[in-house]
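lol ok so funny story. i was supposed to be doing the assay writeup but got distracted and ended up predicting the structure for this chain instead. priorities right. anyway since i did it might as well share w the group, maybe its usefull for someone
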Amino acid sequence: MNKKKCSNPMDIHGIEEWMSQFFTDPFTSLLDEQTFRLDLFETGEDFIVEAELGEALSTEMINITVNREHLYISVLDGNQGEHDRKRTVVLPFSIERKKITASFTNGILEIKISKFIPSSPSSPLIIFNG
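and the output, tada:
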């Protein structure tokens, strides 16, 4: 008997499998050292991406964009954007039409992706709260 994989993005087994793969991927550790560390959490209401960027940055130096299931985080370091650190988080479902909020406190970037609340109006650029 053939088992079909469920393509439902809210299927808990699919999310757990994806998160396990994300955290055991050897390239994740390498990217944590070369760019900046990323962590992914899940609550009942949101998926949360946290990035340790450092306290010397301001929100003007951080760019967050969304394209389908991709979340792009880029950071300009130094004067005139000499060094650019980038990370991409690929989620197992599209987040373009989800409510996404971002905050930056004490060197930690926190991006919340709502599981249930749609965005109003859809924009690829994420604006910081507060």
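Residues 12-24 form the longest helix (13 residues). Residues 12-118 form a domain with the Immunoglobulin-like fold (CATH 2.60.40.790).
back to the writeup now i swear
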